[in-house]
Amino acid sequence: MFDNLSYKLDRAFKTLKGTGKITEINVATTVKEIRRALIDADVNYKVAKEVTDKIKEEALGRDVLIAVSPGQLLVKITQEELTQLMGGSKEEISIKGDPAVILISGLQGSGKTTFSGKLGAYLKKQGRQVLLVGCDVYRPAAVEQLKTLGSQIGIEVYAEPGNQNALQIAQNAIEFAKKSGKKTVIIDTAGRLAVDEAMMNEISSLKETLNPSETLFVVDSMTGQDAVNTAKTFDERLDFDGVVLTKLDGDSRGGAAISIRHVVNKPIKFISTGEKMENLDLFYPDRMAQRILGMGDVVSLVEKAQQSFDEDEAKRLNAKIRKNQFDFDDFLSQLEQIKKMGNIKDLLGMIPGMGKAIKGLDIDDESFIPIEAIIRSMTPQERGNPSLIDGSRRKRIAKGSGRSVQEVNNLMKQFSDMRKMMKQMNKMGGAQKALGAMS
Ligand code: GDP
User: Which end of the chain, N or C, is more open, meaning fewer C-beta atoms within 10 Å of its C-beta?
Assistant: First the structure.
């Protein structure tokens, strides 16, 4: 996410390195570089100019403390200004009414249907009874897609195949929700490839008639300036409440995230960073600014870990580690937990300093595939008792998993090192302490 922009901004700050103080002359060069980096990242020119003018003004007005270099101070100021530009603080969606209606709008392919499912799963996790409604009457596949998502996350989907009247479907769905005790209704609407009158009429009439508690506009962040323009057009007609930025896991240059709030003056409420149902995050302007500047985002990382962390599973593992019984099944279960946290490269990018270090590195969930394949080729007995795995068994496992014997040997070595470390930890009482802290 934003690798390129982070890199260019970092280079801009470096132009100040070595200078002892901030002057009109040296800050001008750096600020010009920052502006160029933002424009290259598809930030609207006016927005880029405004923000860099502010950065300059702030920088010249502040004393450089002995503890920080002018470069560090400028990074801090830039972070503050970007945070303000993206809205300052987090904004939640409003869920009011019985049922509360949430209307999802956006162009075709922006990720509306996927987001509707994610939002449903997110609200269900908070204990809400959710109904998903397929109102895309032009693309039957969209309703099918919603149904598939619904069954995956255990949420009922209301649809009326064959009915071409989106408003009628939505109204029937709301009646159905009342009868079946669903308190939150998420309505996925039809998009088009580009803004057109019929789509705008349909979505505005849905909004006027249904009076939703929240109307969200979903937009693909990879479309850069177009995303900002589309947001503007939708907002003029729809006066939506918030923006959902999708596909931030892709090769996004960051421009949309930075400009949308400022140009449209509506808060970004969610960001989506992948196709999986759990790839959804609330939008925190300060954390996003830190991420853009390559400063990492430890707070989000910790929260993600907490969300994905299964406490009972952790206790079970801890007990096994304590008894020196950690086996390959436990190893697999740990891998699953890590994968649940989302895209590995994005996760690593949240660690300060890692963003730059892993730029260009090819790591993703796929990196686990060979390890998983090897473990899954072991028999249950072998997984539970790895000391059984001798030379001939290693050959068989390699063959079964389609990996080389060398790879199997490497994994066995890693596993045995891991067990040794755990044993050591046990001797020092580390596991007991950790277990005590958890219970
Ligand atoms: P809709 O036409 O607006 O309903 O869009 P869809 O929900 O069908 O999404 C279009 C495509 O984008 C699908 O292939 C989704 O899997 C994919 N998609 C949606 N959100 C994300 C995201 O955050 N990241 C990535 N990489 N793909 C996404």
Answer: C
Interval between CA 279 and ligand 1 midpoint (Å): 11
Pocket test for ligand 1, best of 1, 107, 112, 114 (most atoms within 8 A of CB): 114
pTM: 0.72
What is the domain count for the chain? 3
189 is in an annotated binding site: yes
**Ligand 1: centre distance to CA 345 (Å):** 19
Is 241 assigned a ligand-binding role in the annotation? no
Q: Is the CB of 112 under 6 A from ligand 1?
A: yes
Task: Count Cβ neighbours within 10 Å for each residue of 412-421 and write b for 16 or more, e otherwise.
Answer: beebeeebee
> Are 70 and 130 part of one and the same domain?
no
Do 51 and 106 reside in the same domain of the chain? no
pLDDT tens per residue, range 48-98: 999 999 998 888 877 655 445 677 778 888 888 999 999 999 999 999 999
Residue 166 near residue 173 (C-beta atoms within 8 A): no
The domain that holds 29 is classified in CATH as 1.20.120.140
Q: Which residue among 257, 287, 317 closes a domain?
A: 287
Q: Using CB atoms within 10 A of its CB, is residue 305 exposed (0-12), middle (13-18) or buried (19+)? A: middle
The answer to the question of whether 83 is labelled as a binding residue is no
Q: How far apart are CA 168 and CA 206, in angstroms?
A: 9
Q: In what order do the strands lie in the sheet with 280-282?
A: 156-158, 130-135, 184-189, 100-106, 214-220, 242-246, 268-272, 280-282
| Cis upstream peptide for 140 (omega within 30°) | no
273 lines ligand 1 (CB under 6 A): yes
Complex confidence, ipTM: 0.98
Residue 246 annotated as binding site: yes
Which residue segment(s) compose the domain that 78 sits in? Answer: 3-85
- CB distance 207 to ligand 1 below 6 Å: no
Q: Is the CB of 113 under 6 A from ligand 1?
A: yes
